[in-house]
Amino acid sequence: MTDEVKVIEIKKSIFEENEKDADALRAELKQKGVFLLNLMSSPGSGKTTTLIRTIGLLKDRLRMAVMEADIDSDVDARKIKEATGIPSVQLHTGGMCHLDAEMTRQGLDHVALDGLDLVILENVGNLVCPAEFDTGSVKNAMILSVPEGHDKPLKYPLMFSICDVVVINKMDVLPYFDFDLEKCREYVHMRNPKAQVIPICAKTGEGVELFARWLEDEVKQWKQQ
Amino acid sequence: MTDEVKVIEIKKSIFEENEKDADALRAELKQKGVFLLNLMSSPGSGKTTTLIRTIGLLKDRLRMAVMEADIDSDVDARKIKEATGIPSVQLHTGGMCHLDAEMTRQGLDHVALDGLDLVILENVGNLVCPAEFDTGSVKNAMILSVPEGHDKPLKYPLMFSICDVVVINKMDVLPYFDFDLEKCREYVHMRNPKAQVIPICAKTGEGVELFARWLEDEVKQWKQQ
Is A158 on the interface with B (CB under 8 A)? Predict the structure, then answer.
């Protein structure tokens, strides 16, 4: 296996109405039976490591592909491909701080969707802008890592209000940080009472099966709808 | 002392030419003898704690004020005021992901500039958008924390290329993370060969005097120009 990955240069959307476009993309993907998950977080909170663990648990149960959005570099798509063997493309946003539905579609054009159950989009590392743009995903998930602090739902309200799942990563370093998991849960639920909070450690894999199970259940339920 | 802080609702800029506006703001501040530092980082990398430590070291040597930009909440401005006693205003960006020169000016309108040497602007927690907008600052500084990983200069090139100083925070947790300080230094210098890299631990205060000294020297040199 070569370590080369497809790198797609994403162009700025020319469409003004992102919500309409996102709904159209969602409908198309529904027809194809492909579930799109939009995964967001701050820079360095462990999106790629969490994905590698999650894919490891699910790749024999779901047919998957990954799109890695980044301003530059193809480090993440390469890592995913090497570690999991599943198809992975890198989306270069050329400095753009988020992906919208049209940009997501540009990426999906380079993914062989036939027969896939799930595409995971790793959005740009940013707690602000990605929250404002519907990518056409069925569900939104985010990762907050312990070192970032439990007060983040107070400071980035929109991000926490649009996510169905908040994964709390780097639980192994909890003893070294002033991170209050119960307070965090409370703040997350202030923003979105229905959000699930799942503590994990992507480095060791602890807890990742809960996130994987949530994702598998969501994909299966959605397929039956 | 009351713990109330001024909260300013920042409006979107109507000016198209941010660079011109930033240069004009810089010239005005130069006339008043007020040095503006623009401090950036990811969410949760320790901007506020680093500021409190830095102000503690400098407040008898420089007359200072702080502007804290946040999407919501006044947690940070309140913390700074309580911990240091220096004037601190909170800028609410109403969901906006960065500050430009005009938005910075809106904040400065609420700061008593007469007799001040230094205003520190704590920008929105975001490694992408704030890098694209000149705030009118004399210098840009950023904080990268150990848990975020040493690869961030590869992934957020513009941010690292525009910063004069990169503070590496949370050095106390280095043993628990795969963070290579030498690699980080190398990647920072790929983006900006002149950037200073200053490892600190804001929690204990270790190393902060190096950042404070850099800042004091910059302010003094600039005043003599």
Answer: yes
By CA distance, what is B124's nearest residue in A?
A128
CA distance B140 to B195: 10
Record: contact B158-A95, CB cut-off 8 A: yes
Residue whose tokens read 């709390």:
A168
Taking the C-alpha atoms of residue B179 and residue B173, their distance in angstroms, rounded to an integer, is 10
Structural contact between residues B102 and B49, judged by C-beta atoms closer than 8 angstroms: no
The edge-to-edge listing of strands for the beta sheet with A118-122 is A6-9, A88-92, A64-70, A118-122, A35-41, A139-145, A165-169, A196-199
Question: From the CA of B86, how many Å to the nearest CA of chain A?
Answer: 22
Cα gap A113→A129, rounded to integer Å: 27
The reported pTM is: 0.90
The answer to whether the Cβ–Cβ distance between B43 and A147 falls below 8 Å is no
Contact B157 A71 (CB under 8 A): yes
Contact B95 A128 (CB under 8 A): yes
Question: Which domains are delineated in chain A?
Answer: 6-224 (3.40.50.300)
- What ipTM did this prediction achieve? 0.86
- Count chain A–chain B contacts defined by CB atoms under 8 A: 111
Matching residue, tokens 């020319």? A14
* Nearest CB neighbour to B73, from listed A44, A124, A154: A154
Taking alpha carbons only, the member of A191, A201, A132 closest to residue A167 is A201
Tens digit of pLDDT at every position of chain B (225 positions): 445 667 777 776 666 789 999 999 999 999 999 999 999 999 999 999 999 999 999 999 999 999 999 877 777 888 899 999 999 999 988 888 899 999 999 999 999 999 999 999 999 999 999 999 999 999 999 999 999 999 999 989 999 999 999 999 999 999 999 999 999 999 999 999 999 999 999 999 999 999 999 999 999 999 998
Q: Does the beta carbon of B56 lie under 8 angstroms from any beta carbon of chain A?
A: no
- Report B:169-188 residues touching A (Cβ under 8 A): 170, 172-173, 176-177
3-state DSSP helix/strand/coil % of chain A, to nearest 5: 45, 20, 35
Question: Inter-chain contact A125–B127, Cβ cutoff 8 Å?
Answer: yes
